[in-house]
Amino acid sequence: MTEHSLYLDGPEATAAAGAALAAVLRPGDVVALGGDLGAGKTTFARGLLHALGFAGEVPSPSFPIVIPYAPPELRLPLWHVDLYRIDDPEEIEELGLDEARADSVLLIEWPERMGARLWPDALRLAIEPAQRRGGPDARRLTWAAPAPWEGRWPPRT
Question: Which parts of the chain span the membrane according to its record (predicted)?
């Protein structure tokens, strides 16, 4: 997989990138969203969830670990997962992610906590500050798209 990148000028552009991804999601997709605290993962997730039809406030799932969304609040089922508080990859088994993936999208923050358990067909995204390129809110989105994502991500413009 080749790594690619895109510069985002601020929170609106970060949310718009999430919305662009929402347009191509299918049940069974896994999106692994990495980045440090404050990098913009939740902003990206908000853009994605709002584009899927969610009208409410999008909380970070740091405390509950998993927040499931389903129709009619979204156009397809999605589990928003935050593994920040997971210390042992064995704990992930208890979350039921394999079962959820059968009919839902998995949007996973802190995917590195899964170790080798992260599915090889996951779209791997990372967000990092890019102050040298823009202002304090500028971000760099990088990704590695495996074969199942070819032609879907990045979106053609």
Answer: none
